[in-house]
Specification:
heterodimer, A: 86 residues, alpha+beta, Mth169, Chain: A, 3-stranded antiparallel sheet, elongated, B: 226 residues, alpha/beta, Rossmann fold, 9-stranded mixed sheet, two-stranded antiparallel sheet, 26% strand
Chain lengths: 86, 226
């Protein structure tokens, strides 16, 4: 039997680090409060990225996405990232 | 002196920089397209302002991987001079040729204005024609000019006297009022203000010329000491 290539989807979330000013989050928080939505402690805004990959070996694909996140998709000076692969 | 001005898709201050170098200062200058893999025999590279690759992902993030930027990294490593202006500063940070990052202005607004900057040190090839503490009036035009770096990096910059320009009145939330910094060997300079837009009287100011004249002066000094 021949293994068909499998398409997997990485769902990546990139967020500003805690120490980094997030004026967008702050402004959206104020807007939410102006809607009289109470109990909002904090809002932070980041990015969501989907990447489709071809391959079967999950460990290899994970490493590939990790490299992509570290080198390009996030800037480690100002952002953290996390992802799932399915 | 030979200058190279990089051009990315989306650069929009490349011609201004070229005009100052070639016409105002009368130096040799040429454009370097982002796909070129070598810089030739240039002494100083200008990474100009604009919106390289449409600022996709993050300002400067894509430009960093262009062939020309690889050549700029080698040029910098060999001690060649590099000036990154505005988007150029963002690119140099993304390329790790300078520490830190430029993030959204605190106000979330794109700021197009003239600002006063204090020359914090004349000990650099980019400020040696200025006076210590001199106030330069230069334009800024950016949405992502808020300089960020870890406290340890900010302390290091201060200790090593690597903040060349500070805002007199901080327009964008930059850490430590930083408007321009250099690398450890003081040969790579990044700044958010636009000296190339203020090098002729007809444009409203000439203070920017001091930055380019500093580069010329340092090159002359280097020749003499040879």
């Amino acid at each position: 039997m021949v293994d068909n290539p499998l398409v997997m989807k990485a769902r990546i979330i990139v967020m500003p680090k805690k120490a980094v000013l997030d004026p967008q989050g702050k402004t959206v928080k104020q807007a939410l409060e102006s809607l009289n939505l109470t109990g909002i402690k904090a809002v932070r805004i980041g990015k969501f990225i989907e990447v489709e990959l071809i391959g079967r070996d999950k460990a290899v694909l994970k490493k590939r996405i990790n490299d992509a996140c570290h080198k390009l998709l996030s800037n480690p000076v100002i952002e953290d990232y996390e992802f799932t692969l399915k | 002196m030979k200058f190279g001005v990089l051009q990315f898709p989306g650069s929009n201050c490349d011609q201004d920089a070229y005009q100052v170098l070639a016409s105002v200062l009368g130096e040799q200058a040429r454009y370097i397209w982002h796909k070129e893999t070598t810089l030739g025999d240039v002494d100083c590279v200008v990474v100009p302002g604009g919106f390289s690759y449409g600022d996709y992902l993050r300002a400067g993030a894509i430009a960093r991987f262009s062939p020309a930027m690889k050549a700029v990294a080698s040029h910098a490593k060999a001690g060649g001079l590099v000036i990154g202006i505005c988007n150029g500063f963002q690119i140099l940070c993304e390329a790790h040729l300078l520490p830190g990052a430029l993030i959204r202005n605190r106000t979330l607004k794109f700021i197009c204005d003239w600002v006063n900057l204090r020359v914090e040190t004349t000990d650099s090839p980019f400020t040696n024609a200025c006076r210590q503490g001199q106030i330069l009036r230069l334009p800024i035009a950016h949405g992502e000019g808020c300089y960020f770096a870890k406290p340890a990096v900010l302390r290091q910059l201060k200790r090593e006297n690597r903040v060349l320009l500070r805002y007199v009145e901080n327009p964008n939330g930059s850490a430590d009022d930083i408007a321009g910094i250099c690398n450890e060997s003081r040969t790579v300079f990044g700044l958010m203000p636009h000296p190339e837009r203020a090098s002729e009287k007809i444009l409203g100011g000439e203070d920017g010329r001091l930055i380019f004249e500093s580069v010329l002066r340092s090159a002359t000094a280097a020749l003499r000491s040879r």
